[in-house]
Amino acid sequence: MSVQDLTNAIMQGISAGGEQFLEGTLAAVLPIVWLMLLGLHLGRPYILTMIDRFTLRLGADLLWLVYVALRDLLIVSGVVMSFMFFFPDVVTTDALPLTGGLAAVALFAVLLVKLTGDPDHNLRDFRLVTALLGLGAILYFVPYLLGVQSNAIAIGPFVAISKFLVTNTNARWAVGIGYVSVALLAILGAAAAAYTIKTGGRAEPETTTEVAEPSAL
Q1: Are 75 and 111 in contact (CB under 8 A)?
Q2: What is the domain count for the chain?
Q3: Which range marks the domain in which residue 195 is found?
């Protein structure tokens, strides 16, 4: 083996190891992101109650700003980190939730609702965001718990179910769902682009029922 061959082998090993480390890290962090996101969304009444207790408007505004920024940042982060579900070589190699790509589509749909509406003031949009987050959580955590986490301890008929819900033991379905997710993501992205071009980035006026918002103190 020449020096060049040895160098290439070392570089390939480092590259492959780094890729596996990144994918493993994303797979480990995504459940935490989902839990934090659901907690922040469902904890909205608590935040509003805390805001009402502030004696200074500045404190209330800062708390609301931090809450909204953290919540929306987690949504964007979840979508970005879920891009690994769209690559066939990743889903066929790593043990990932089978419907994780569809969960990412649900998260992206939440961003689309936030772009075209105002879930913090519009009750219909708020309910739609809640439904999409609930759907995404089901699509992610059901195969994650019953498949990825139960794969090593499943017995009897649950072994087949567990293997079916994991991407690297059900490659055909995993790749197919990945392609479907990419198609849905492209449709939602096109809708977002069309809306932005149509409105010029300005929100359209809303006339529907409002939900609670931080009160002026």
Answers
A1: yes
A2: 1
A3: 15-199
92 falls within a domain: yes
CB atoms within 10 A of CB 199: 12
pTM of this structure: 0.83
Q: Which residue has the tokens 């995404």?
A: 136
- For residue range 109-139, what is the model confidence (pLDDT) as tens digits? 999 999 999 998 899 999 999 999 999 999 9
Whether 170 is covered by a domain: the verdict is yes
- pLDDT single digits (tens) 43-80: 998 998 888 888 778 888 898 999 999 999 999 999 99
